[in-house]
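Hi P.,

Sorry for the delay on this. The queue was packed all week, but I finally got your sequence through. Input first:
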Amino acid sequence: MGSDEAAGGAPWLWGYHAVEAALRNPVRKIQRLVATEEAAAELESLLGDASSIEPQIVPRDAIAKLLPPGAVHQGVALLAKPLAPWLLEDVIRHLGTRERAIVVALDQVTDPHNIGAILRSAAAFGAAAVILPDRNAPEVSGTLAKSASGAVEHVPLVRVVNLARALDQLKKAGFWSVGLAGEADATLASHKLGGRVCLVLGSEGDGLRRLTRESCDLMARLPTQGPVASLNVSNAAAIALYELVRAD
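Then the structure:
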C-alpha cells in the first residue's frame, strides 16, 4: 500500500473534486496524474484545455496501491508539490482595506478530516483563511485534501507558532475574535457581529485552551436545543460561518 506522500514530501491528492481543483490552480505544480479510462474521460469533460498534464491511464487497483489503505480515489489521483505556505501577515495584507472579512482559527483541532471539512465550509462561506497552531497540526495530506473537496486550493491555511499572539495580531488589524463554547451565555447571532471577525474553535474534547479564551474578545454558543448539546467541530464551524455571513 502507498501513503499520503511520495518521496520528497510531495502529497498524493485523490478524488474528483480535489484533483480537479488542483489542476485548475495555476500555481500548483503537478508532477504526475494517474486515472482510469473512465475517470480520465470525466476529467477531460470537466477541464477541457485547463489541464496541462496528460493522465497516465492505469487500472483502478494500481491507483489504490499508490494511496493509503481505504482511500476513496474515484479512479483518479495526482502527485503535486505542496503549495507555498501563507503567513498571517500575507493574509492581512491581501485583505487590504476590506471592512468585512472572516477568518477561522482552530485550537488543538488535529484530525485531518475535520480540518478538511472546515476548509470546505470556509471556502463556501467566503472566509479569508484558516489558522492552525503549527504544533501537532497535520500537513496538507491527501486525506485532508479529499475532505476539503478542493478547498485547499482556494483558502489559505496559515500555521502559527503561538495562536494567542496570532489573535492579538488580528486584533491590531481590526478583527474581533469570538470563541465558540457550549457554556457561553450568549448565542453567536445575538452578538450581531459585523466588520472583521475571527471565529475561534477548539477541539471536541478539551475545547479552547485558557490562553486562547483569554485572547478572545467574546465567547458565544450555538443555540442547540436537543438532547445532544455538542456538535462535531466541523459541523459547528459550518453553522457558525453561516450565522456570521447571514448577519450581513
